[in-house]
Amino acid sequence: MTQHSRDLSRRRLLFGGAALGAGALLVGCTSNEAAPTTAQTKGADTAAGGNSAPGKKVTIGFSAPAADHGWLAAITANAKAQAGAYSDVDFKTVEAGADAAAQRAALSTLIAQKPDVIVMLPHDGKELNAAGLEAMKAGIPVVNLDRAFPDALAYRLQIMGDNYGMGVAAANYIVAQLKAKGVSTPVIGEIPGIDSLELTQQRSKGFADTLAAAGFKVANRRPAEFTADSGQQAATGLFQALPKIDAVWNHDDDQGIGVLAAVNQTGRKEFFMVGGAGSKKAMEDIQADGTVLKATVTYSPSMASSAISLARLIGQGKGMSDLVELQVPKEIVLASETITKENASNYLKLGF
């Protein structure tokens, strides 16, 4: 991880704060409903007289998939809460629908209404690339979240978690633990999320590349779908395929609930596990140290808060006050941090 990536991570709260607990809409969601806290959004510091002071009124259109997952719920909740911190922001949400086609139709309607800026988390970056291009050609800057557009002309700003870095961080923790235990030929399992998504592929590549550098490899890989039920099914299949396991990386803490259910159901506790995203429930389990889950690597939905804050600046024609440049950057990547028993208490307030 570069110093630049670490600096970006430390600036997260300047951009908009960290994760917001949102409603547990399905079994896979990891938290209860919670009001925004000062740790989860960045309040407007009007006393500073800088960028946060009220300025030109900005209408921000927003679209993200339905909150049927704890992380997605936090994305939408963070965006709404951050918009509410500014008296000069008019926040307009449009439904994303059930798939990419429905979201594109909704976005076309939004584009016709001519908001100042559009913030979106697409169902699929490749399939929604055309919607980004449509908005940008109409003179509406697009702030894209999480799922990358392949065309740089489809967005004014793209904010991403470090998916490759998540895999690197997870592998680094696993390698360090195994070497400390003197395990030279470990059996390592992997439970990714939706395999067709580029972000999943990047996570797996970072994981595989880093393991390979240490002379290790993944023995079995069972994709899930970011839900508790799919996590339980994938873990059950992994346990059946591998009679002995030393370590597992599960990409997503929501589906990790199902993984832990499979652990309890099968009694397979000879390994340790690393999670992904940084849910509050995962952090609490890590802190309590009563399960196989010993660490998680962050992929914070704080990016939605950041997106709203930066969309506002773009709409007002401003840059970031702590940078020399006069405009908001084109790309921002938030670094993935490793949460363990030793530092979980520092991160709990940021869990979604």
Automatic annotation (TrEMBL):
Sequence intervals crossing the membrane: none
Record carries keyword Signal: yes
InterPro entries xrefs: Peripla_BP_I, SBP_2_dom, TAT_signal
Record's subcellular location: Cell envelope
Keyword vocabulary terms for this entry: Signal
One of the Pfam families matching this protein, by short name: Peripla_BP_4
Signal peptide (from-to): 1-34
Keyword Hydrolase: no
Domain Periplasmic binding protein: from-to ranges: 60-318
UniProt-listed PROSITE patterns: PROKAR_LIPOPROTEIN (PS51257), TAT (PS51318)
Similarity-based family: Belongs to the bacterial solute-binding protein 2 family.
PANTHER family the record matches: D-ALLOSE-BINDING PERIPLASMIC PROTEIN-RELATED
Full protein name: Substrate-binding domain-containing protein
Species whose genome carries this gene: Micromonospora rubida
